[in-house]
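[recover] target loaded
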């Protein structure tokens, strides 16, 4: 009895020490943040408006996927390039969770045709592939795997224009490219400021043919980016404003976009996704993403779908620790007034998320995840979250296991 008490105390002491070390790291990162060379992409609201930059290109590789071509989403871009006598080539084999094979095949076409710039036309997987092609082009003596981690590229990549066709990942404004090793299936990220696209063309007409489930889950992913980055303590007034505006736009437009009520709703969702991307690339995501990535890696479920389910569960777990910020979110979204209590605001936001999930036929739990996988997934989630994510409540490995039980339901 006495021994178990001593053990427990040792464990708790270890957790407290680890947490203080992680918090110190996060505080240090917050201090050096203003010195980091972030450069936002220059934004155009339509392909037509972006003609000024497109007409100056020369030998372009368009990185895309089969579904984009099947839905003719390349036609408007192609017409502008043709009208301006710009030579272009395609790589259209990008898959969901893009692979190193995708990157190397696209690079081959880029080199063979003496291309000078890249256009990524598609969702997050396509944009991530184009970023990695740019990185490999300037790091000729490196393998893709050797670029894994932070600031390994460190050299200006060719002009990269990102044209997102989904409203969710925010990859058009982030510094990360996530790829899967084709041989080992190991998933890793290349993170470098030089990978932030030079231009982002947010043309909502390209999102009109998005399947409804994709629209809903990518939108909920963007909402998760915005909420997690706002709740983190590394944000500044700029990231807070971007996150709040993204949350408001998503709450006001996601249902109308889903119901195809107006073009304006689609445009607002695309812009919200961009703002959320800007916010989380500086203020990070949090435990929802850490939990979701481990599930996604093991069970191959769509990222946005997992996030949508986990988001309200994690927010409830944070409870009163996030009341103050949840009130600020609710106030900004005009869901409460100063007369309402913080707990009312907290409930309203969580209920809103649950109501959206119900409308989109997203389940409350993921009952297919297996108890036997919880320890290994919890370790992965813990490793991802710590010390990087400046979350409002830090989870231990046991906390993550507890969360997986709640997610399973
Ligand atoms: Fe995400």
């Amino acid at each position: 009895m006495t021994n178990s008490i001593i053990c427990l105390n040792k464990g708790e002491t270890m957790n407290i020490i680890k947490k203080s070390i992680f918090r110190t790291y996060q505080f240090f990162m917050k201090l050096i943040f203003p010195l980091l060379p972030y450069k936002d992409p220059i934004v155009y609201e339509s392909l037509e408006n972006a003609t000024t930059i497109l007409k100056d290109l020369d030998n372009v590789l368009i990185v895309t996927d089969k579904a984009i071509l099947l839905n003719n989403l390349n036609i408007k871009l192609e017409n502008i390039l043709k009208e301006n006598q710009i030579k272009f080539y395609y790589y259209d084999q990008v898959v969901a969770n893009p692979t190193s094979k995708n990157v190397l095949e696209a690079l081959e076409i880029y080199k063979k045709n003496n291309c000078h710039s890249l256009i990524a036309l598609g969702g997050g997987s396509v944009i991530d592939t184009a970023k990695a092609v740019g990185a490999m082009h300037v790091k000729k003596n490196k393998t893709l795997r050797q670029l894994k981690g932070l600031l390994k590229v460190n050299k200006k990549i060719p002009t990269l224009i990102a044209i997102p066709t989904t409203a969710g990942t925010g990859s058009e404004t982030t510094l990360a490219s996530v790829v899967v090793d084709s041989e080992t299936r190991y998933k890793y990220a290349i993170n470098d400021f030089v990978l932030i696209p030079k231009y982002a063309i947010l043309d909502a007409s390209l999102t009109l043919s998005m399947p409804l489930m994709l629209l809903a889950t990518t939108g909920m992913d963007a909402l998760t980016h915005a909420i997690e980055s706002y709740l983190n303590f590394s944000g500044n007034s700029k990231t807070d404003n971007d996150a709040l505006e993204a949350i408001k736009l998503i709450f006001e437009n996601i249902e109308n976009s889903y119901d195809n009520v107006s073009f304006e709703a689609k445009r607002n969702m695309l812009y919200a996704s961009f703002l959320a991307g800007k916010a989380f690339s500086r203020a990070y995501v949090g435990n929802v993403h850490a939990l979701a990535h481990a599930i996604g890696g093991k069970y191959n479920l769509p990222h946005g779908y997992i996030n949508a389910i986990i988001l309200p569960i994690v927010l409830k777990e944070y409870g009163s620790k996030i009341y103050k910020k949840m009130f600020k979110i609710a106030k900004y979204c005009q869901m409460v007034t100063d007369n309402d209590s913080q707990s009312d605001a907290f409930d309203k936001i969580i209920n809103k998320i649950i109501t959206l999930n119900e409308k989109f036929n997203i389940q409350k739990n993921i009952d297919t995840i297996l108890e036997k996988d919880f320890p290994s997934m919890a370790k992965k989630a813990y490793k991802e979250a710590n010390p990087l994510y400046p979350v409002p409540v830090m989870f231990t490995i046991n906390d993550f296991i507890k969360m997986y039980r709640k997610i399973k339901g």
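[recover] notes: Residues 42-207 form a domain with the Rossmann fold fold (CATH 3.40.50.1970).
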